[in-house]
Amino acid sequence: MKTLHREKLKVVAETDASDGRYVLDDQAGFLMRVAMQRHTSIFTSRMIEGLTQTQFAALAKLYEVGHCSQNYLGRLIYLDAATIKGVVDRLHLRGFVTALNDPKDRRRRAVALTERGRTVTESAMAVASDITTATLGPLTADEQRQITKLLRKLG
What is the pLDDT of residues 23-79, one digit of tens each? Predict the structure, then answer.
């Protein structure tokens, strides 16, 4: 079924794109959304501890940079203040992160991985590598490097 759908999309793209009409199936945003849906399906089926993509991003970034303010963490993973607050709250309830007082600014709280959070993150990062491999599986090694480079450029 999926192969038939892809073949149909290819035929539509090849026949309609040349006449100047808007063809949804040829639009970068649409194609990125379709690719993201595929990636999300792979991620959801394989990620441990029921982590969402956003929760995993927060844990992985904390693992990478160490404790930091909630606001800064949000900026690092491209989330607004309200969204990162919810993510951190849910991770805190699960025992993956804790809040620390910022010694430089008593009004600010820092977020840090707990020992359990560190262990889960290390396991999740190993699974995430497999998820990336599965997501990019249909591409050659050169195409994988190229798409990663292009997505960085777009971001």
Answer: 999 999 999 999 999 999 999 999 999 999 999 999 999 999 999 999 999 999 999
Q: Could you tell me if residue 29 is inside a domain? A: no
Is the pTM for the entire model greater than 0.85? Answer: no
In whole angstroms, what is the distance from residue 150 CA to residue 30 CA?
16
Please say whether the beta carbons of 73 and 111 come within 8 A: yes
Which letter, b or e, does each residue of 61-85 get, where b requires 16 or more Cβ atoms within 10 Å of its Cβ?
bbbeeebbbbbebbebbebeeeebe
Has residue 121 been placed in a domain? yes
The CATH number that applies at residue 82 is 1.10.10.10
Owning domain of residue 65 = 51-135
The residue assigned the tokens 């997501």 is: 135
Q: Is residue 15 part of a domain?
A: no
